[in-house]
Amino acid sequence: MIILFSRARMMTVTLKLEQGFLPQDYTKSLRDVGKPMNVVFINSERDVKKMKDLSKQLSVYGKINLVLFVKEFKSPLIGTCMNPVGNPFRLSEGFSIFVKCYEDIAIREWYAFYENQLEIYERNTWEPAKGLVLKSKKLKQTDNDILNGKVLRIGRFSISEKYDKYVDELFLALKIAGHFSTKNVYIKENFGIGSWNKTNKTWSGAMGLMQNNQLDILAYGTPLSQTVLDSFELTSPLYRFDLCLYIRKPSSKVEVMWSAYFTPLTHKTWCAWIVSLIVTVTLLRFLRLKVENGLYNGGISENFLHVWGCYFNQGLPEFPKALALRLFYYSTFLFGFFMFAVYSASYVSDLTVLQNNLPFKSLEEFVKDKSYKLAAHNPFFYDEQLKICSKKIVLLSIEFITSELSADTKIPCKLVKIKLERPRYFRMAMPKNSPYKKAINYYIIRLRTNGILKYIESELQDNSVSGISSINAPNEQIYEPETILDIASLLVMLFGSLVLSILILFFEKFYFTVRERKSAEISTRSRSGATQFRKLN
After folding, report:
1. Which of 365, 404, 436, 524 is the right S-S partner for 379, CB 3.0 to 4.6 Å?
2. What is the three-class DSSP state of 435?
3. pLDDT exceeds cutoff 90 at 183
4. By the 8 A CB rule, do 56 and 92 touch?
5. pLDDT over 70 at 27, yes or no
6. 264 and 135 in one domain?
7. Pairing of β 239-248 and β 415-426
8. Structural domains counted in the chain
9. CA distances for 427 relative to 241, 245, 377, 405, 431, angstroms
10. Are residues 220 and 234 in contact, defined by beta-carbon separation less than 8 angstroms?
């Protein structure tokens, strides 16, 4: 066997298994090279007993495992090899090995459908003359085949009609994809999810049932913690939800306060505007002193009124003839036009767009507020919703709060949902080292890829009639500040009209200049003609 592997340029390692387990140095070396192919030779009952202890490790450290029964054909192990009863090697559920019995040319797969039941498939034959010949289209059973024909025990809580419908449709899709059936085990509300006992290192409640292998899957969102990860297996995420703060919606009052006139611009913008006003007035004073050559006797107040009028589109008493002052006033008029447009647009939007006047809109603002108490949402009780409507209490819960309320349950007041930037993922729990984990995760990912999970998830969405509005939601309308590119078309029209006006002004100036010259020539000719006429007389 070693010679055959060497001819195929395959590296081999020979181990003598006296203790019935793989050496620690060997298992450490597999972390870098991956899972190898293990070949085990059996020729006595003693080797069969060692194989029982070795099968657990082979399921972890072996990609393909081949067991060869060697020695004479008339061996006492011929019955164990050809017609095994039960599970001779104590293979884990869902684990398979290839077996070749003595001189028999068939290579069979022993697949542990249950821990005490094997399914045998003839996969290949091997002869020295013909070599390896495939007898089956399928090389071996995969991890997903473990669900075929199984009955999984599903732990469920009867929370609400909407949530129960979501779980029903979820497992209906999984059952169709994985070809298995389920048995619902309903857990009483007072039993709860369960808690961890550090002294006994056991779980209570529904988690305790799963720890004792009385449940295969717990159909409820399991909190992600290190204790849970050490005790159970978690499935792939089924859907993503956000943590939210729920607060009673305050009454909407439409009123304009004195401070509303200053809210369109920030403090820094106001300071920058005042500084620009001072700089503009000072620059105008120096320009007029330079251009008007001592004829300027006005004070700072006159320049301030001129600049203020430019900012708010007011005309000047007399437009200057100096080119420097004209350019200055043009640029000031343009700057004032943009500032007034930005201010008026922001102010009008604050008046026309109704927003909830909440005491806080984030978790950080809630911590600083200190006037509200925090309550955690328990899906089995309705008292928290009643407390929110009567007291200054904030409820911390998941996004789909209405999915855990029954259809006849009505929230007595309107709530506002403040989304926090801390997403969570709904995962179901399974017993530690569950053989169904890979198969369930495979079908969950497959359903998500096909869009079926998205459709099922819509059952948990909050209805528009639920009386819950949203703050900081990704799907709500968010008003973003406009960039220069967003108003490029308006700027093109503005500057285009400005250029057109300058061209018209230029052509008018040119026209009047030419006309004045022609009229001057005509008048000169007429005068000269009149002079000659006088001389002739």
Report:
1. 404
2. coil
3. yes
4. yes
5. no
6. no
7. antiparallel
8. 3
9. 11, 22, 18, 20, 13
10. no
